[in-house]
């Protein structure tokens, strides 16, 4: 059963090529519910999922899986999407904004409008540490990209870590330490009970003065009124939000018109059938061989 949120024709073409022996049915035109063994989607009606008695697995078409938290889905494995192509797009997005604000490109845009030719001296790349909140597959990809440009990398996770060339932090105290020693912070955290509202006034108060905040994980991890206050008080010089607590961002949100905020509509990385469908097909083949697909969604951890 296939219910992607975009590129229907491309998904059908790619999965037919990857799984030539399988019968692919598009929702809602499911003519034989008993034959459905795999459900491929982003979000789907939980009641409809009860129509498929022989379902063996659910395969998500996005990296985020908060849609499954608390949902009454059948007791089958839920497989997350780990697409390096998407991670690469998100790394490029993060690098763009880090370089944009580190090199004062925002100021040059204003200078061009005023017809001013004035070089602005900035910190050396090695003196501009970048913190990454969440150092899973995507966070590591972002860290590798920025490190390749010469930026020192700080990483914060719940359990910490040890990697050459990366300064690791963990726990609440570690979080405050990481943001205080970073000139830019990239948030790639998922939406879980532990991360929801994590970036609040108490944490924002420890950000290095004039630092930059780039959020492309999940909007629920940031307390937006506290973020606005941090911008107004000069704690942050800028914020880039690809994700917000409510999406689409409501017209009345002060974030729209804040002069230090840049907003993009959850587009830092796209799910593309050309790269995602082969990964999903490979997991289906693993299940057919009696192997475990990966990465599996863990409801206890929320991702």
Task: Provide keyphrases for this structure.
303 residues; 4-stranded parallel β-sheet; single chain; 8 helices; 11 strands; alpha/beta
What does this structure look like?
This protein has 303 residues and is α/β, with parallel strands linked by helices. 30% of the residues lie in helices and 15% in strands. The chain has helices spanning 8-18, 84-102, 105-113, 137-148, 171-180, 201-204, 224-232, 273-288, and strands at residues 2-3, 38-41, 57-60, 78-79, 130-133, 153-157, 166-170, 184-187, 211-215, 236-241, 261-263. The chain has a 7-stranded parallel β-sheet with strand order 7-6-5-8-9-10-11. Strands 1-2-3-4 form a 4-stranded parallel β-sheet, covered by helices on one side. α1 crosses α8 and α2 (84-102) packs across α4. The model has no long low-confidence stretch (mean pLDDT 96).
Strand fraction equals: 5-15%
User: Distance between the terminal alpha carbons, to the nearest Å?
Assistant: 23 Å
**Averaged pLDDT:** 96
Question: Portion of residues in helices?
Answer: 25-40%
Instruction: Count every helix, treating DSSP H or I runs of 4 or more residues as helices.
Output: 8
The main β sheet shows up as: 7 strands, parallel
Q: In one word, what is the shape?
A: elongated
| Rg measurement, Å | 21 Å
Computed structural class? alpha/beta
Tell how many strands the DSSP assignment holds: 11
What low-confidence regions span 5 or more consecutive residues with pLDDT below 50? Answer: none
